[in-house]
Amino acid sequence: MLTIQELEAGYDESMVIRDINMHVDDNQVICVMGRNGVGKTTLLKTVIGILHPEHGSIQFNQTDMTTLKPSQRAKMGIGYIPQGREIFPKLTVHDNLLLGLEAGDQKTIDEKVYAYFPILKDFTKRNGGDLSGGQQQQLAIARALVSQPSFLLLDEPTEGIQPNIVQEIQDVILDIKQSSDTSMILVEQNLDFVKNVADYVYVMDHGSIVYESAVDDIEDETIYRYLSV
């Protein structure tokens, strides 16, 4: 479904990620791990098109999308949940979700997103900025899901979130995985969470992939060594 080859990208003259090679199959959840500042968010921003690579290619469903705009990638079926949520605080929950429809061909909000996050249906008229951090994260995920993407990019969805909402997010990822062919790249620091939802793990350090493994074969000590400060 998604193949990244020899990808290099960064900001101005500074290269942040180098020689990234990665493949994601249909209905596969890939997790990218690593301490803060190693290039995980830069990788996702390059995949979605916010950053343009200096070298390498990104193929999606056998189409080269290396130079496409973020809006074009969204129309191809890629959803993006950024770190920090980036919801619109002055818009209602309902209006935030309507904006998510712009990425796809759907005209109405799928009731399934309310089944995933029932609190959002109770708060449809509440401004996004009035929600708690965990509720804003639920809204950010729901906004990406309303367009029914075939591929999701999630940047640290459990960061700073209370345990009960982390469990809800985990359940949603597992349900999507079990009920559709949707694939995901998930940036995450919580190894227990990763083991529960992911199929394969890549670990980054200093902008490059330094370790990769199927989840069932993960060496915990190696992972923790690259996560420690």
TrEMBL record:
CDD domains: ABC_TM1139_LivF_branched. Residues 2-229 form the ABC transporter domain. GO terms for molecular function: ATP binding; ATP hydrolysis activity; branched-chain amino acid transmembrane transporter activity. The keyword ATP-binding applies. GO terms for biological process: L-amino acid transport. Keywords: Amino-acid transport, ATP-binding, Nucleotide-binding, Transport. SMART domains: AAA (SM00382). The keyword Repeat does not apply. SUPFAM superfamilies: P-loop containing nucleoside triphosphate hydrolases (SSF52540). Belongs to the ABC transporter superfamily. This is ABC transporter ATP-binding protein. It comes from Gracilibacillus halophilus YIM-C55.5.
